[in-house]
Amino acid sequence: MAVLETRSDAELLELSLAGEERAFTLLYERLKAPIFRYAFYMTSSRTAAEEVVQEVFISLLKCGHRYRKAQGDVAGFAFGIARNFVRRVKRRERVYEALPDDFALEKLVTLSGGEKESLSHRVVHDDAVARIRAATACLPDHYRQVVVLCDLCELSYAEAASRLECAVGTIRSRLNRAHALLAKKLKQKKRPQPELPAGTEECLI
Amino acid sequence: MTCKEMRARWENAPQAAADIRLDSSDFSEHIASCHACNRFVEEQRELAEYLQMERDSAPAIPVSLDIAVHNNFRRYVSNGSIPTGAWRRTWLHGTLGWAAAIAFAVVVAYAGIMVLVSRQQGWSGGEVAGQQQKVAPQVTSSARQEMATPPKLHWKKADRVMRPVREPVTQTKQTVAEIDDNLPAKFQSLMYCDQISCPGAMEVIRMQFPPPLLGLAPRSGGANGLISADVLVGQDGIARGIRVVE
C-alpha cells in the first residue's frame, strides 16, 4: 500500500482495471469526496449523490480503458462521468417533488435529542443553509456549476476550468455574476413579509 | 483607490483571499469612505458566510456507499467483467465493428448500383419510346393527306409521355358504306342512317313536290308543274331518303 500511495491516479486506474483491489481502494479514497460533494450540491439529495458515486466508479471500471493521459487527469475524467450522471438524475427527478430524505430525518432526530441550548442556533443555521441552497438551486446551470466547484468543492479556478473545459477567465466572470445573483436572491429572501391582519376578521370581510 | 479598481481587485482574487483583501490599508480606507463599496463588501462577506455554512452542512459519505462500491469492484473481478487486457477486447470489438460496417457499406453500394442500372435500363426504354413517338406524327401526316376529311387527333396520357392517338379512318368509311347499303338504289339520303339509327323496315311513299323545293328550275316539272318523287320513311315517320321519279 505504501508503494501504491506514491502512484498517480492514472497508474492506480490502470492497476484497478487489471483487478488490483488495493489500487482501486486508493483511487476511490482519492476521488470519492469531491465527486460526492459535487453530486450532492448539484442534486441537493444525499441519495442521488450516493447513486452518482456508485455509477461513476462502475463506469470507471467499465470504460476506464478509454482514459487518455494526454486529455487530462483521472479526476477530470471521473468528474466528466459524474457530470453526465448528475444531468441524467436531474432530468429523471425533474417531474417529482422532493421529499425530505433520510439525511433530513437524521438531522431532525439529532435536533430533538441533542443539546437544548444549541437548538435555536441550529434552527437559524438550518434556515440559512436552506436559503443558500434554494438560491443556488435557482441559478442557471452554468453559474451553479461554477459556484459548486469553486465555492463549495473549493477547487481552484484552474481546476474548475479544466473540469468544465473552459477558460479561467470564463470561470472568474461566471463566478462573479453568480455571486451577484446569489446576493440579490438572498436579499430578496431576507425582506420582511408584510404583516398580516390579526385574527380572522379580515378574511371574513 | 477608485470603486472600479476595488471591484476589479475583488473579482480577480479568489474567494479565500477575501480577508487578506480587507486587511490591506487602501481597501479599508476606500470602504470606509464609499457607501456603495461598503455595502458591496458587506454583501459579499455575508454570502461567504452562507457558503461556508453550506460547506459545513455537507453530509458525510456513508460507510454503506464504500461497501457497495467495493462489492461492485469484486463482482466485476469475479465475473470477469473487468476489462483486464481490455485493449485486446477493444481491438476485437473494434475489428468486428469495422468489419460489420464495411460489409453493410458493400451491401448498400451493391444495392445502389443495381437500382441505378435498372433505372438506366428504364431510361433507355423511354428513349426508344420517344423515338417511336417521333415517327408516329410522320405516319399520321401521310395518312392525313390520303383522307378527305382529317380525323380528330387527341392526346392520351400514358407513362410520362403524350402519345397522339388516331381514331381509325376505316370506321368513317364503314359508316358511309353502311348508309349506302341501308338505302335502296338511286335513293339519296336525307339524314344519317345506319343500322342503329334506322332500325326495321322503311316505307316508300310517292309524293309530288314543286320543283324549287327540290332545288330545280320552276318549269322543269311535269304537266301539272310538279315533280314526283319516292320518299323513304322510317317507322318513326322521319324521311330517310328520296328518289326523283319524273
Quick recap of the structure?
Chain A has 205 residues and is mainly α. Chain A has helices spanning 2-5, 9-17, 21-43, 46-63, 74-93, 102-113, 119-137, 141-152, 157-164, 168-190, 201-204.
Describe the structure.
The complex is a heterodimer of chains A (205) and B (246). Chain A contains eleven helices and no strands. Chain A is mainly alpha-helical and 205 residues long. Chain A has two domains: 1-98, RNA polymerase sigma factor, region 2, helix turn helix motif (Rna Polymerase Sigma Factor, Chain: A), CATH 1.10.1740; 100-190, Arc Repressor Mutant, subunit A. In chain A, helix 3 packs across helix 5 (74-93), helix 8 crosses helix 10 (168-190) and helix 9 packs across helix 10. Chain A is globular. The termini of chain A are far apart. Chain B is α+β, with helices and mostly antiparallel strands and 246 residues long. Among the domains of chain B are: 3-55, no CATH class; 119-167, no CATH class; 185-244, no CATH class. Chain B has helices spanning 3-12, 18-23, 25-33, 35-56, 63-79, 86-146, 169-182; strands spanning 153-158, 161-166, 188-189, 203-209, 227-233, 239-244. Chain B has a four-stranded antiparallel beta sheet, with no helix packed on it. In chain B, strand 5 (227-233) and strand 6 (239-244) form a beta hairpin. In chain B, helix 3 (25-33) packs across helix 4. The relative contact order of chain B is 0.05.
Largest interchain contact: A-B, 48 and 36 residues
Secondary-structure element sequence of chain B?
Answer: HHHHHHEEHEEEE
Low-confidence stretches of chain B: 82-89, 126-151, 153-180
Q: Report the C-alpha radius of gyration of chain A, rounded.
A: 21 Å
Helix content of chain B: 55-70%
- The total count of strands of chain A amounts to 0
Question: Strand share of the residues of chain B?
Answer: 5-15%
Enumerate the spans of chain A where pLDDT stays under 50 for 5 or more consecutive residues: 201-205
